[in-house]
Amino acid sequence: MTVTQPAGGVAAPAPAPGGGRDRYFDLLRAIALFRVVLYHLMGWAWLPVAFPSMGVMFALAGNLMARSLGKRPALEVVRGRMRRLLPPLWLLGAVGVSGMLLAGWGPDDEGHPGWWWLHLTFWILPLSDPPYGESLPGVHGLLADGWAVDLAVPLWYLRAYLWFVLLSPLLLRALRAAPWPTVLSPLALSAALEFGVLSVSSWRLDSTLSDFGAFGACWLLGMAHQEGVLRRLPRYVVPSLAPAVAGFALWYALGHGFRAGHDLDDMPFAQSLWSFAAVLLLLHLSPSWTDWPRPLRRWDRLVTLLNSRAVTIYLWHNVCIDAVEGLWDRLWGVPGLEEHASWLLLSPWPQLPAVWALTALCVVCCGWAEDLAARRRPRLWPDGSRSLAQNLSPGRRRR
């Protein structure tokens, strides 16, 4: 399994129990998305431990899915979630696949042209991982080597998200019938795959099952939170259980080569336990803010923007990183920089603002697909400021 932040998250901002948006969930999603971008640029192994973004985003999406299923027919909810998910993917595919074809990628790359054409449909409906030009070189001065891989590999999240959405009506019924056996079943699946009790010959099926085992408990915890299952636990259970599970997960990871280049993303079983523990604790603490606490109000517009464009940021940020790295490589040819400022060329920190600047450009250029998917009027920069002004009556606006 290769983990790259949905992100961030694919779901829309979670509603608060009393209506409106739950700003605590909005904050978690924004932090998760920022951590994903930072991790893909820096590559620090400890970042997924400090904040397990993918588990958090799956949990928030599961919470919203359970809320929707409690109000509308299952088929309508599933169709609505797929409608929100797919148009941003199609836009990425239109640009990315076209670029790969122009670079020389084609049916012969997989050895069986017929299978290539069939697998190409996964760019339309991501029931499995779509094909991509793994061996394509970079575009000199524009994109670093591996850009096609970085563009396509993050789509594992959309594939996993889609399967969770399709299975959610059944998962919710199982959760209501047997809450904790249902929540813990993905952990059992992950353990069975890890220790060889269950083996799958097909890599496509294996990756799907592996991701379900790694993050299914997080999705189900989000549903359980919405259904009130967590509130029925004695208050001392989660603070006692979560650290113990997290400690075991970290012990297991350290015993299986946890390091830079081989972190939790490459250890589905350790990932499943660590994410489960972290999500359980975060949902236990859940304060359900309908309004921001005073110290966080300054971040309202940024958090709103990140939530409104979570899919766009998740899908395009890796390409932005490749573009910045390609441009950074050209700086080695600037006279004097290599001799007097090599630290600037070697450090990823100066690249971070450039990555976010390019990502902001993608938000402006491609974010409209999220609005069309949600059947909203397209907006260039949906940070909430305009909608706030519209909500003010004319007599109360400043003149």
Description:
There is one protein chain. With 399 residues, the protein is mainly α. 63% of the residues lie in helices and 0% in strands. The protein is built from 18 helices and no strands. It has helices at residues 23-42, 47-50, 53-69, 74-102, 113-119, 147-152, 156-177, 179-194, 203-227, 237-254, 268-285, 300-308, 310-330, 337-340, 342-346, 351-366, 368-373, 385-391. α1 (23-42) packs antiparallel against α3 (53-69), α3 (53-69) crosses α7 and α7 packs across α8. The longest helix is centred in the first third of the chain and has 29 residues, at 74-102. The termini are far apart.
Strand coverage percent: under 5%
Biggest beta-sheet profile: none
Approximately how much helix is present in the residues? 55-70%
Shape: globular
- The average pLDDT score comes to 90
N-C termini distance: 56 Å
Radius of gyration: 22 Å
Q: What is the total tally of β strands?
A: 0
SSE blueprint and pairings:
Elements: H1 23-42, H2 47-50, H3 53-69, H4 74-102, H5 113-119, H6 147-152, H7 156-177, H8 179-194, H9 203-227, H10 237-254, H11 268-285, H12 300-308, H13 310-330, H14 337-340, H15 342-346, H16 351-366, H17 368-373, H18 385-391
Helix pairs in contact: 1-3, 1-12, 1-13, 3-7, 3-9, 3-11, 4-7, 4-13, 7-8, 7-9, 8-9, 8-11, 9-11, 10-11, 13-16
